[in-house]
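OP here, attaching both records as promised.
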Amino acid sequence: MPVNSTSATETRQAGNKIVVAGIAAIVLILLIAAIVLFANLPDANAFNARVEQLFIENADLTAQAEIKLLEILAQSGTAFSETLDSYRFVIFVLLIFATAMLIAAVAFLVMLIAMNRRMGHIERKGIEVNSLLISRDQNTVYLNNFEFKLTAAAIETLSVLAEARMDDEVLSGAEIEAVISGRSAADCDEAAGATRIKRLRDMLGNQMVSELLVKNIARRGYMLAVDKDIIQMV
């Protein structure tokens, strides 16, 4: 029976297509609105055409006052045309601004949704450890390229846990103490190993990191909660 699976890449590509389609829809809607708006605006030369018609229809008006009145009407038509042109420019600028604001709003919304999903993933899965490099000679551990300076005892404890993790083993406190001290596990105290684990966690400092890195399995012992393939020891 075939299993339907969707990779993270496919999901991201689908999300990108939705974003592009949303932005294209916004631009298209505003473009249609602009066309309808400009189509319904009055003609800038409508007033001038009406004044010209008055000149033609009243060619017999020869008095100085009548001619002056027609000239005033013509000048008013020119002023109206210039005002309407400025209104068209203002409307055009506002439409561009509205388009930019809507596109920015969609982009920020998508970023917010992606961030919320990422945070939810982190909350469900915890901190994802991609690399763990233990340098014994420098008493340093590199966790996801973050450097933690530890004591020699803490490095020994972490090294024992790392070696056990690579062998898929869970060590009790007594077994940890036995490996480090070179004695038999039967001769070692469970509390001694637990103390070493506590000191290791204290040296790591960040409680969240230390608790997620060194896992306590009830009635079994301790192990590193990381993929064994990412562990390196030098």
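Record two, same layout:
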Amino acid sequence: MNPKIGLVSLAGQYEVGFNETPCLFKKAAEGLEKSGFSIIKAEDVIYDGDTMKKAANTLKHREFDVLCVCIGTWSEDHHLLDLLEYIDKPVILWAFPAVDTGSLCGAHQICCVLNELNKDYFFVYGETDDKKIYKEIGNIARAAALKNKLKHVKLGSIGGRVKGMTDIAFDELEIKDKTGIRIINLDENELAEAFESINRDKCSVYWEDVKNKAGRVSSSDKYGIESVRYYFAMKTLIEKYELEGIAVKCYPKWMGKVCLGFSLLSEEGIVCGCEGDINNTVSMKILYELSNIPTHNTDLLYPDYKANTILFSHCGSGAFSIASNKKDIHFAPVRLADTGVCSLFPAKAGKVTLINIVGRRGTFKMTSVVGEAIECGMEFPGNPLKVKFKKDVYEINRLIADEGVGHHWIAGYGDMEKELEYFCKLNRIRFLKI
């Protein structure tokens, strides 16, 4: 995700440091660009009504995700308030260390005002050569870009949720209100009808190609061709409704039938949630947008208190690119039902962020935990992901139960916890960091 940052400077014309503010602003802009950010800047320092209007005219018709305000000195706060009437964006207030400029106290003053007005703002403090500042600004900007992106996302719910799995019940209006994502509810018959329309011979040829992605195949050609037909059926619905992800009530009717399709679609950037869990299909979309890497759909299976690890896995619908070794990918029938095609493999190692979303209006929350995925074997017939944590896994296990987090966890590669925290702040979502 490559966020765009609007950039302005603010100073008081009678304050120490006013004349140096243009140079400070230039260094800040160069630092952001050097850090890889796209910026749109208003060149003149804002210090009165005319300079505010000039900045507004420069920025108000441009597309960007967050407004970064370089506070050169103490300044009258209403100039920024007036600018925000033209530009409705979250604000990053950047104060700079100095004894006599009043940059910091000016920033604190504006923080108070924006807080009273219930405006979205963030605060950073440091020099223009401080790499930590650019990292923090990047985390905030990516969170803002994610919020903007999700406003246009549609996810499909095929068949609703699995019976007897009440923790994954979803509040469609709360999801729209809190994340921006719109849910398209589709009847199971639409998938069945799309399946019937798919040419079997075409799928037979495609299955032969797909088999080359696996190191071993024990599913029959009958199940393989059926799975490919479901893959194309799901693509038909995705294209028809302009979806960026789907959740299918796969258990028990479609166990193993849509798993291979999920693996293939995940490689194409379409997030796919098991068991009709829309909340955590939203989680998948969030992590995918932040990392641009397919995610793991998992259950939390086994905490090992001695090794301080937790084993996560699900039936086997992960993208091939997140396998520890592509030669180890095994196309096999789904466990329990002994039908269909699952992509079985141990997950690759690396830093991972795991999140869970549950709840409704008033209880909607995101829970996050970060750990290190380590090498593991086929400890569960699916996509086992073994994660080592710094925090005591006994405590993690207890907190999940105490907070009523639920049983599905989505894992994405990389440490995205700060972006998630800022995203939740922007969207008034309760964020629980374990």
